[in-house]
Design a protein that fits this description.
mainly beta
Length: 177
Amino acid sequence: MRRTIGMILAALLAAGIVAVPEAAQAATSCSRSWHYITHAETGLNLQPDPLQYQGNTTVYADAVPGTNVWNQQFLFCRDPGWSPNHYAVYSNGTGRYWGEANNIVHAGLDSITGAQMLFDIWKFDSNFWVIRYVGWPWYEKYLYPDHTPGYSHVLTMGQPPLTGNHLFRISPANLLG
């Protein structure tokens, strides 16, 4: 009897009449349009190293708006299981996601494999946004361009207090639009 049921089930599966449920998967979706992220103090856009010399995917806040626009575009990606305001950021210039190495933001991750790779992006006021790296559990790490000579506006992470150097404009303002 068991063998007969197995043969009937196999025939139904082969015919497409009965389907085996698939394992649940995260339904990550990204914004419908590309966004520009502009540093509020300098008016310069974020971009990964446009030359990507020797695979360099470091993100800089040094791009003049309206030039090399392909490299300055980003998508914000979400999953229903993530905390509110947590996003993965996908770079048009590298075709990869943002990540962190030694307190510097890189656009070089092939995929998002955990919450430690996300960024908390929230409205500071009606004009400006703040971006915080989620993956550091001991203290908050906010993004800002490092203006120290020799660092050439590298997008870096640092502790509060928040200053104007930590503020960004995001256009369009609807992160998932």
